[in-house]
Amino acid sequence: MNTRRHVNVLPLYPLNLYFLNMHPFVLFSLALCSLSFISSGEANESVRGFTIDLIHWDSILSPFYNPSLTPSERIINAALRSISRLNRVALLDENKLSESLLIPDSGEYLMRFSIGTPPVEKLAIADTGGHLSWIQCSPCRSCVPQDTPLFEPNKSSTFTNLSCDSQPCTFLGPNQQKCGTVNECIYLQEYGDKSFTTGVLGTETFTFDSSSGTQSVSFPNTIFGCGFYNHFSHRPSDKAAGLVGLGAGPLSLVSQLGDQIGHKFSYCLLPFSSNSTSKLKLGSEANITGNNVVSTPLIMKPSSPYFYFLNLEAITIGQNTLQTGQTDGNIIIDSGSTLTLLEETLYYNFEASLEEALGVESVQDVPFPFSYCFPYRENMTLPSIAFQFTGATVTLDPVNLFVQDNDTLCLAVVPSSVIGFPISIFGNIAQIEYQVEYDLEGKKVSFAPADCTKF
C-alpha cells in the first residue's frame, strides 16, 4: 500500500522585488520546509513501439493558432521565436552552451501526455534540445500563469520525490541541484536569459495515447522536475504547462526509456500549413527503411552533452560545392529551431553561390530575421541544393529552404550572427517531409524523404 505525507511549507511571503532578485535556490529553500512522498510503482512491461502527435505552435490544431495571420506571417513569427530563443544566450561563453542554449518558453512543437494516478492530461513543449522534463506543480510559490490547473503531486498515488544521494540527482550538474531539509533532491534548471524552474526532482507515471492504433502506454517511475518556483523573462502563452526533454542527457525522456524503446525515436515534420499533426515515434515504430535511407554518425560532445551533433562536410548548390573542412561535429540538429543557422563564412559563401546560380540580386528590404530574399518568378528554376553530412547527402526541396511572401522568396538559412554566437543548427524547416530517425545506441541519425501525412 502506498502512503503519502502532505506537503509542508512555510507561509508564502509577498514576492517583492527583493525576493525576485534572489537566487532561485535561496528563494526556494526559504519557502520549502519539507516535501516528502513515499510511493512505489510496478516495473513497466516492454513496449514494441508507439506514436505521439506533435502539434506545431502555429498549426490550425494548436491552441496558439491565430487565424488572422497569413502563412508567411506564421513562418516569420516562428522564425522570430526561434531567433529570440537563441538570441538570449548571445552573451554566454561556450562553456555554458550545454546548459543554457535553449530557452523553454517558445519551442515549436507541442505534445499531450498524462501524468500521475489518476492521470491528469498536460500539454507541454517537446524539445530535442531539452534534457530534463518538468511541469509546474502545486503548491506553487511562484508560477507562470497557465490556463489549466497545476499538477498536484499530493493527489497522485504514484508520485515519489528522489533523495539527494539518488543516482538521478547526481546526473544534475553541480550548480543544478541542492539538498532539501528532508534529504529531497531540489533541481534548478536555469536558462541563458535568467529564466529558471526549480522544485523537487521526482518520479511519476507518464502515460501516452498512441495515435498509431496501439493502446495507451504508461511508464511508471519516470524522472521529472516538479516545479514550485518558475520564472520566465519571456512567456508568450499560458497554454503549455512545461517541457518534455527529448535531448541527449541522461534525464531526458528518450534516455530514460532506453531499452524499452530500443534507444530509438523518429519524427516526420509537416509544413506549418498542414491540417494534420506531425508524428513522433518511439520503439520499433521508429525504424525507417527503404532504398532512400541515408545515415550519418551521431556525435556526442562532453562539453555540450545535451545536444545532438552531426558533421556537415559540404553544401552543394547546383554544380558548386562548399567544403566546411570539419570532421568533429559542427552542426546541431534541433527540432525546436525554425531556421537553419550557419557560421558566417560558410553562410556568406552559400548565399553568394545561390545568388550566382539564380542570376538575380537580393531585394533591398529584407524582413528580419532573414538575410537573403529575392524576387520570385513563376517559371524560375531553382538550383539543386544538398547538405552533405558524413556518409549522408540530404537533398533539400524548396519547401526546406525558402519562405514565400507574395512575389518574394526568402532563404530559410541565416548566418549565426543573428544570435551573436558562432554555432550552426539544422532547423526544422530543413527537416520538413523527411523521416528523421535517432538511433542512440547505434550512434547515428538517418534521413529518408517521405509524405509525412502517411508516417
UniProtKB/TrEMBL annotation:
Gene Ontology, cellular component aspect: extracellular region
Gene3D superfamilies, sorted: Acid Proteases (2.40.70.10)
GO process annotations (BP): proteolysis
Keyword ATP-binding carried by entry: no
Superkingdom of source: Eukaryota
GO MF annotations in UniProt: aspartic-type endopeptidase activity
Protein name: Peptidase A1 domain-containing protein
Organism encoding this protein: Psophocarpus tetragonolobus (Winged bean)
